[in-house]
Write a structure and sequence with these properties.
240 residues, DNA-binding (chains A, B), 2 domains, transcription cis-regulatory region binding (chains A, B), 12 helices, homodimer, Arc Repressor Mutant, subunit A, globular, Tetracycline Repressor, domain 2, DNA-binding transcription factor activity (chains A, B)
């Protein structure tokens, strides 16, 4: 078989993409280096040229996710015509348009599954190191503009970001719901949680209730419609 | 060696206690069933009579922690002479008196270490299923008394409980701090986070700023004084 020579950066990107797919589909522990090199068609020796370990690969994946988030955020922060409240809403709505619902539910389904706790933590921690300072800059601007109240914008930013976990159980319920009634109940429960999360963001930042709006209407229904057939969370939900 | 026959419940409690110590000290993955039975002096067959797997043992440990939390909470909830705000503060202060600082820092040091993400998640999830409904009852009472505002006490309770993670990094920094200056900075940073966490609780529940007080003054300094010699988080902090 003729060996195809690719640029090292291309190889590295291929390995990252394959690892992302396999970690999501099978879980971080279950997906082996052999599985990953099998997908890309690389020897084990070559793999270790790019990444000293599977853990280093995970770290690189997390950094890649953080860099993507940073690029999205820079675009928001670079818009001086936007008020801090407008920037806050743009920040919170990232990736939550109905056009990205399918991508969102697929990501949630893999990342919140019990097999992927380690993956979730690594991603979450790395992305937080990008998100929290960016949100802090928006809060700082809101304080200057007189719309937001905060003693410490970085801590306020972290508190706001922590609230996101209040919908994790609702994602599991949405994925597990069977039948039209159960599904519409799961959608309504999810939306109630998003509304309460928004209110909590308002109150932490000293904004009037109803200011933070971070989900396009119909987003949860669009996620429900785009549910993957495989349901890694179903068993857990049924057992709990 | 004469075989000592113990009551099954006593054996089970011994296994749980040994597993708790070993999981904390070495991490859930690293501590094996062999290690655990070695501490208790039991055969592998006997172990599997009590627990079908190491995972079942972890689940039982989490349930035990939840039951202890439930008992503490019942005492608070059963005090009808306390207002909802007094109950809230009693709830939030559980285990955070200076007399329990040594126990708290030892628990934090093990449970927030990178090796113990799975352990932390299991404990957190199980304890949350006890905590959130109990806190919801306090918020419901506060709503009846007119002191608290909430559209949905259970979701509000979950939002309040999620804020606790805002001090996880501060625990790591406290454990890693070397020298008197670094240590007093770590204590001050930790206390600033606790104060902001308290304000966020107030605001989510519609209470006047400064109402929620969930740490006895001097608690963080007492935790710092009681730091264990072994420092499982140090390396991570230095690398981050």
């Amino acid at each position: 078989m003729p060996r195809i020579v690719r640029h090292p950066e291309v190889r590295r990107a291929e390995l990252l993409a394959a690892a992302g797919r396999l970690f999501s589909a099978r879980g971080y522990e279950a997906a082996s280096v052999d599985d990953i090199i099998g997908e890309v068609g690389l020897s084990k020796g070559a793999f270790y040229y790019y990444f000293p370990s599977k853990d280093a690969l995970l770290e690189a994946l997390a950094r890649q996710a953080a860099e993507r988030a940073r690029a999205e955020l820079e675009a928001i922060l670079a818009a001086p015509a936007m008020s801090a409240v407008e920037q806050l809403n743009a920040f919170l709505r990232r990736g939550r348009g109905t056009d990205r619902a399918a991508e969102a539910i697929a990501t949630f389904a893999s990342i919140f599954s019990p097999e992927n706790i380690v993956l979730y933590h690594r991603m979450h921690r790395t992305v937080m190191t990008v998100m929290a300072p960016a949100l802090a800059r928006i809060i700082e601007k809101g304080r200057r503009e007189g719309s937001m109240a905060s003693n410490d914008p970085l801590i306020s930013a972290e508190l706001v970001l922590l609230l996101g976990a209040v919908t994790h159980g609702a994602v599991a319920d949405l994925l597990a719901a069977e039948g039209a009634d159960a599904l519409s109940q799961a959608i309504a429960a999810f939306e109630r949680r998003l509304a309460e999360q928004g209110l909590a963001v308002d109150r932490i930042l000293g904004l009037p209730d109803g200011t933070a709006r971070f989900v396009e209407p119909g987003f949860v229904a669009a996620m429900a419609a785009a549910r993957p057939n495989r349901n890694p969370l179903g068993a857990t939900v049924a057992a709990g």
